[in-house]
Amino acid sequence: MAERQERRSGGAGAAVVAGVVASVCLGVGGCTGSSGAAVGEDGRGGDPVETLRRAADTLVDAGSSKARTSMEMATGGTRVTIRGEGVYDFGERLGRLKVLLPQDPAGSSERRSITELLAPGALFMKNRGAGVPADKWVRVDTATLSDGNLVTGGVTDPFAAAEVLRGTRTATYVGKTEVAGSEVRHYRGIADLGAAARGASVENKGPLAAAAKGFATAEVPFDVYLDDEGRIRKVRHRFSFANGQQKGTVAVASTTLLYDFGAPADVRLPEARDIYAGKIAEE
Q1: Measured between alpha carbons, how far is 246 from 233 in angstroms, rounded to an integer?
Q2: What is the CA radius of gyration of the chain?
Q3: Sign of torsion, CA 267 271 274 280?
Q4: Alpha helices (runs of H) in 44-151, residue ranges in sequence order
Q5: SS3 for 38?
Q6: pLDDT in 10s for each residue of the chain, 283 residues
Q7: Which residues pair with 277 in a beta bridge?
């Protein structure tokens, strides 16, 4: 694996990654179950709450998988979607995704793609624009992000998405269905980000704690689909964060689809010389 030297890009880096979502929010007008759900028995006779709290551990046992992601933001009657696709290593907490941004609000037909590398404590982006050379990476310290990088990068880290479920407060077993041709068990519930942070791995304790404070509410409604081995095949979270430009909150639905478990996930982080250290232009 390539040398994992990481150079902090400070506030400039945080500002440019925020642009992935913030620019979309501007383009849609500035970005503007219940918690009392009963706990029932799932299709295999277990407690849904305990089953979901263990789901992240099951992914670590699975090793790796391919992943597809989507992040939908809705405000003022307008909806935009950011999509991603790639691989993730749950043991190493490393992922590589190609992220496709939505059409430019000005009407340009071009949809820029960004390569993102997900790592403990860091997010790397290539082809970000904003004056960064095409062959250079931008590094962002995710500890500086108030949402714990659950939203800012336009992608929710697949393992962080699973660890949100460690904070499951209430859950119900909905029934059996299919996801991508595989039979799965569907659960619906609400997780608490503060509780998730306390039960998370060392790598995600800080980010999830930041999200618990940074979002409009620490409660996260979700739908999740597990296969017969207890692995997450699909999880959809609904986040809500305060709108910094207008009154109200921004509704974000983040969906992660996992498949082809055991697929090779050789994720190599950039060497220091490949990380951009210059000034980030405002877009």
Answers
A1: 36
A2: 18
A3: positive
A4: 48-53, 55-62
A5: coil
A6: 444 444 334 444 444 444 555 544 444 444 433 333 344 566 665 899 999 999 999 999 999 999 999 999 876 667 889 999 999 999 999 999 999 988 665 555 567 789 999 999 899 999 876 678 888 899 988 878 889 889 988 999 999 999 999 999 999 999 999 999 999 999 999 999 999 999 999 999 999 999 999 899 999 999 999 999 999 999 999 998 776 655 667 889 999 999 999 999 999 999 999 998 866 655 5
A7: none
Within 10 angstroms of residue 273's Cβ, the number of other Cβ atoms is: 10
**The total number of residues written for the chain in this structure:** 283
Q: Which position has the token pair 């003022």? A: 76
Asked if residues 247 and 29 have their Cβ atoms less than 8 Å apart, the reply is: no
User: If you write DSSP's letter for every residue of 104-130 in order, what string do you get?
Assistant: PTT--S---EEEEEEETTEEEEES--T
**pTM summary value:** 0.83
What are the tokens at 210?
A: 């930041």
